[in-house]
Amino acid sequence: MATTDNSSALGLTGIAQPPLWMCVLLGIAMIVAGVFVLGDVVLFTVVSAIFIGWTAIFAGGFEIVHAFWTKGWGGFLWQLLLGALYIASGIVLLSQPVTGALILTYVLGLILLVSGLVRVTIGIGHWRQSGWVLAASGVFGVIAGLIILSGFPATGLWVLGLLLGIDLMSHGIGWLTYALRPADRPA
């Protein structure tokens, strides 16, 4: 019978686990960043729109370059159009970040509403296989989408910043939880 040595710092993937102090530091830094973002959600909504704009421009540029590198794959024109659409969207977000934030928030509200309705429908269809969990998740998505859309355009000024702040804080709490549970960490 083979035995396994669990005393190494390597996880199941063979990649070294981060040291405890690094996990704690990362967790605290992310929580502080989340609190900082929540301190001015309107500012960070605009900052998010600008960041998404730059990201879209770079992605569009790479999409266009990729279209020329892979001409033989087919879909060359579609890749060029998609790249141009990314670049145009990025330029709009950079030139009009408040308007861009409003557009992004409206699209987010629509996506939450539609995906919530889909999850509710699928959850009801699979009720006996614990579909109620999916249905409950869908209800929360529908509610979130309706809150965003019913308060629009005012919600467009704070939703992205609020979600960013909450995400940073929850990510930080996750790292702290990971660091403070030594039973789950390799020795």
Describe the 3D structure.
By secondary structure, the chain is mainly alpha-helical. The chain has one domain (20-178). The chain has 6 helices and no strands. The chain has helices at 20-39, 41-69, 76-95, 97-125, 131-150, 159-179. The longest helix has 29 residues, at 41-69. The radius of gyration is 22 Å and the shape is globular. The two termini are 23 Å apart.
Primary descriptors:
187 residues; mainly alpha; 6 helices; transmembrane; Acid_resist_chaperone_HdeD; membrane
SSE layout:
Elements (H helix, E strand, L loop, with lengths): L19 H20 L1 H29 L6 H20 L1 H29 L5 H20 L8 H21 L8
Helix pairs in contact: 1-6, 2-3, 2-4, 2-6, 3-4, 4-5
Pfam family, one: DUF308
InterPro entries: Acid_resist_chaperone_HdeD, DUF308_memb
Keywords: Membrane, Transmembrane, Transmembrane helix
Entry summary:
The chain is mainly α.
SS strand fraction: under 5%
Could you state the oligomeric state of the chains shown?
single chain
User: Which runs of at least 5 residues are low in confidence (pLDDT < 50)?
Assistant: 4-8
Terminal Cα separation, in Å? 23 Å
Mean pLDDT across all amino acids? 86
Structural class: mainly alpha
Instruction: Report the principal-axis shape.
Output: globular
Could you describe the largest sheet, including whether it forms a barrel? none
Keywords: Membrane, Transmembrane, Transmembrane helix
InterPro entries: Acid_resist_chaperone_HdeD (IPR052712), DUF308_memb (IPR005325)
Pfam families: DUF308 (PF03729)
Transmembrane segments: 20-38, 44-69, 76-95, 101-120, 132-152, 158-180
